[in-house]
Amino acid sequence: MIARLLAFIGRSVLSGLAGAGKVTLFAIEAVSHLVRPPFYGREFLSALLQIGWLSLPVVGLTAIFTGAALALQIYAGGARFSAESVVPSIVAIGMTRELGPVLGGLMVAARVASSIAAEIGTMKVTEQIDALVTLSTDPLKYLVAPRLLAAVISVPLLVGVGDVIGVMGGWLVGVERLNFNSATYIRNTWQYLETWDVMSGILKGAAFGFIVALMGCYYGMNSGRGAQGVGRATKTAVVAASILILAANYVLTEVFFSK
Amino acid sequence: MIEIHGLTKSFGPKHVLRGIDLSVVRGESLVVIGGSGTGKSVLLKCILGLNAPDGGSIVIDGKPATGHAGASEREEFLSKFGMLFQGAALFDSLTVWQNVAFRLLRGANRKPRAEARAIALEKLKRVGLGPDVADLYPAELSGGMQKRVGLARAIAADPQVIFFDEPTTGLDPIMAGVINELIRSIVTEMGATAITITHDMTSVRAIADKVAMLHDGVLRWQGPVAEIDTTDDPYIQQFIHGRAEGPIEALR
Ligand SMILES: Nc1ncnc2c1ncn2[C@@H]1O[C@H](COP(=O)(O)OP(=O)(O)OP(=O)(O)O)[C@@H](O)[C@H]1O
Ligand SMILES: [Mg+2]
């Protein structure tokens, strides 16, 4: 019984390590295609459109509601110490450092990792990947590399936009519901916000973008056969991307902010 | 041109190819027949390196087909080939003409867009499709039309070796006749080497110089097309006459 349990644990650990190794090799090879011609500009632009531009509404809506709720919570919490005036700066710091990148990243994971995995997975099961190879086109170069680059570029931009919209959400609630003076709110936001607060969040965004595109591509390219295989690949890509984003967020926060 | 010796391929416990010996000379048209699920498609994919063979050797133009040193060598190797997949395998994010012109629009011998489009339209015409389908997406076509677009894509860059996986399945008899003639003319006029998989005996007679029959992981019989009617091999006889009784079991 115990032996079987140990064997099970051992097997799981081994297969986990093997999986991590495979993902790493996959990532290295895909990235190496970014510096070796030919480059597929069209595919890059369309990935930019799909990953960046079309994610704007989702990220914007996430940010505005988060900023608004954050303002209410911080006001309520601050009231316990008679420190309601911290609302503007804490909303700004919380959005830019943490909630903007993490919630934005998770929303992009839901939207983009799933669509990439489903698209590439379908291409795999309908032999389109094989067809690419027979047409002398490397699928990693043609499908994966442009999506990775587009995600690393566009997710930080999305985070930046999300920051602004999130702070605006806080400001709206602050002015409309919590009786802050609009000019004071904006002044307080600026006064205590440091460049590094914003920059660290944007760097996180780049890492999360890479994770999202990598998971979508990896599980898509390794999709099982049939509709069921694609379904499983899509689900796994979203789950893996979300967990890795949260884990990477902790690690990056340690690296950026631990004293 | 293509020399295969002792080729084996298994998927897990399932031994699909158990030792294939086959040779196809330049400008020859080979037709592979055999029951459903015997590994005909897998054979083609092994030659192209899409499935890694477990054992045996594949030599093309005197060079081994697997284990290329670098990406450019592999690209060079693949640039000689055209392949029509059994399921057409069209890129559904691209329009019909962009599918056909895929190779012409990319890579070392890239052509200007207008010229690539003109070539694509000409190839589409050869498979019986008018210019009106050129700007549609694959999902907007019928199965038989998709198959023909796949065929146009396979021949678009005038490859030296072309593989057709069931080119006439799902086509009406007239269109099947057109496609048979097209494949025949590609071999006779352009001097291409062709391997075609088909279940359709009319196609076999129209296309083949040589016929090979795959059964139980090996090539049971191969010979000139003229001999398929005279041979007394019971497998061939059962197959071409479509009899339920014979050495080939119906349950596979
Ligand atoms: N990627 C794969 N993984 C596992 N098994 C596979 C794979 N590809 C093919 N097979 C198996 O190999 C066998 C041969 O398949 P193949 O597609 O070559 O058959 P076929 O001769 O082309 O049949 P058909 O005439 O129906 O197209 C089948 O039993 C199939 O289940
Ligand atoms: Mg087949």
UniProtKB/TrEMBL annotation, chain A:
Membrane topology (UniProt): Multi-pass membrane protein
Transmembrane segments: 44-72, 148-173, 202-221, 233-252
Compartmental location: Cell inner membrane; Membrane
Annotated keywords: Cell inner membrane, Cell membrane, Membrane, Transmembrane, Transmembrane helix, Transport
Pfam families the record matches: MlaE
Main location: membrane
Function: Could be part of an ABC transporter complex.
PANTHER family per the UniProt record, alphabetical: ABC TRANSPORTER PERMEASE PROTEIN-RELATED, PROTEIN TRIGALACTOSYLDIACYLGLYCEROL 1, CHLOROPLASTIC
Listed name of the protein: ABC transporter permease
UniProtKB/TrEMBL annotation, chain B:
Keyword Chloroplast (UniProt): no
Domain ABC transporter per the UniProt entry, residue ranges: 2-241
Keywords from the UniProt entry: ATP-binding, Nucleotide-binding, Transport
InterPro entries associated with the record: AAA+_ATPase, ABC_transporter-like_ATP-bd, ABC_transporter-like_CS, P-loop_NTPase
Name of this protein: ABC transporter
GO molecular function terms listed in the Swiss-Prot or TrEMBL record: ATP binding; ATP hydrolysis activity
CDD domains tied to this protein: ABC_Org_Solvent_Resistant
Keyword ATP-binding: yes
The species this protein was found in: Paenirhodobacter enshiensis
Gene3D superfamilies (alphabetical): P-loop containing nucleotide triphosphate hydrolases
Transmembrane segments: none
